[in-house]
Predict the structure.
Amino acid sequence: MDTTIIHVDMDAFYAAVEVRDNPELFGKPLIIGALPHERGVVATCSYEARKFGVHSAMSIKEAYKRCPHGIYMHPNGRKYKTASEQVHKIWLTYTDLIEFISLDEGFLDVTGSAAHFGGARKIGMEIKSRTLAEIGLTCSVGIGYSKTSAKLASKEKKPDGFYEIATANEFKALIRDRGVRIIYGVGLKTAETLHQAKITTVRDILENRQIVVAILGNHGKQIIDLAEGIDNRKVQPYYESEAKSISREHTFQKDITDIEYLKDALRLLAKELSLKLRVENIYARTVTLKVKYANMKQITRAKSGDATNQTRDIYDITASLLDKVEKRPIRLIGIGLSGFEESEFRQMTLDDLTDKRDGKRKESLDRTLLELQTKYGEQIIKTGNEMIAEKRFNVDTIPEKDA
Ligand code: DCP
Ligand code: MG
């Protein structure tokens, strides 16, 4: 059976959620991210702001130069998470073979289920109309015979788009005269290498295959396949508990040297990660501290031990790792967790053996806390230190992406 894949991508996602919740913003250039006087970047912006050349990941200073009359807002992460979960729920009514790429984007393999719903186009149209009616947001839908073609199709008529690329020939015809960057996997660097060899369009790639392979090796072969419309990559249903690692990080508005301040940030990150572990019912063996200095140099330090899901353990490990790193102004701090274990296979920890009563009490307290947090949101209960830490940080500040 021929594969049929749907790619869905929400339009101007964060900005669209804000416009939905405040209709006064409708039709205006809206920029979500840092505020003009802060250090940071644009997370996204409305299509009206894009007309001025503003885009995701642009420094907020540059955005302000291009669009001084825009409306600037901090992101409101919790709201986007909720909208994302609602969107995902709609998708899941059509197939459970879904690769969730980000909050607002996913691949749905509907090869097996399309007939049941009257065809892939019907599913695509229904996803669009239900997303608007039930959640109040628009999305772009692409239907393809592969992941690449589906993704290209969803982008083709953005925003509020709907497009299908049914065969490799259609795909090839569509991209032949476009720049090489249209091909998945051709980033800025690869494009520049190709440009130096006078290869600027997809047609150039197909007419100069030997050169492409000579300069890019195996990567060149993959690029040629993709230019030919060949892409057998499968949709990989993804669950965070199966991920190899999870992480959280925080970029500061100004570089930080105060160690206590840095530890407060670690406390918050540890708490977020602990909640994630408990929701997924997994335990991590390896805890990694990530530090980016003011000069952009980045280091990581890791420690492995008994598997844990506790805020306190994650915090203690990262705080002691932080004590040992070079002391220079720090711009970003983060925690990564890996080496996951399911609860049943967890080794007994010293705590379990020596202090059973206390351990039990801690666990039941944790469970109650978890229940309250999932019900009312993470903010419901905090320890004293966490409250102080939260006052100091804007929890929603977006981490700057690496260039
Ligand atoms: N995002 C971010 N930082 C980036 C890129 C994106 O924080 N560098 C966030 C904000 C976006 C969301 O992720 O709203 C989804 O990213 P998209 O690339 O899909 O961008 P949008 O949905 O905002 O716009 P588009 O209509 O182009 O899909
Ligand atoms: Mg999007």
Remarks:
- The longest helix spans residues 259-280.
- The chain has 15 helices and twelve strands.
- The pocket of 2'-deoxycytidine-5'-triphosphate (ligand 1) is lined by residues 9-14, 43-44, 56-57, 102, 104-105, 158-159, 398, 401 (CB under 6 Å).
